[in-house]
Amino acid sequence: MCPHQPPCPPADRHDRDAARTVACHAEQGWSLLCNGVILFEDTGELLPDGSAVPPRRPVHIHQCVAA
């Protein structure tokens, strides 16, 4: 159970990334959220049930081209 008020969103909800960070390992590129979700720096996620959520990458990627 989440001890925060208001409670963090559970791992099965769409807004699960809004849960508070309980452990951060920036040097390894991941954080553990209060709801048990492991959030990776590339925006991928590992849910408590073991399922993976692929990274959400921007649709438009701008590249610099030398003239």
What does this structure look like?
The protein is mainly beta. Helices cover 0% and strands 24% of the residues. The protein has a five-stranded antiparallel β-sheet with strand order 1-2-3-4-5, with no helix packed on it. Strand 4 and strand 5 (52-53) form a beta hairpin. It is globular and about 30 Å long. The model is unreliable at 61-65 (pLDDT under 50).
Output the structural class: mainly beta
What percent strand?
A: 15-25%
Helix content: under 10%
Largest beta sheet: what is the strand line-up? 1-2-3-4-5
Radius of gyration: 15 Å
What is the averaged pLDDT score? 87
**What is the 3D shape?**
globular
In whole angstroms, the N-to-C terminal distance is 57 Å
Count the strands?
5
Tally of individual helices: 0
Profile the largest sheet: 5 strands, antiparallel
Give the secondary structure arrangement, pairings included.
Blueprint: E1 21-25, E2 30-33, E3 38-40, E4 45-46, E5 52-53
Antiparallel strand pairs: 1-2, 2-3, 3-4, 4-5
Task: Please summarize what this structure is.
This protein has 67 residues and is mostly beta strands. It has strands spanning 21-25, 30-33, 38-40, 45-46, 52-53.
Question: What characteristics describe this protein?
Answer:
67 residues; mainly beta; five-stranded antiparallel beta sheet; 24% strand; globular; disordered C terminus
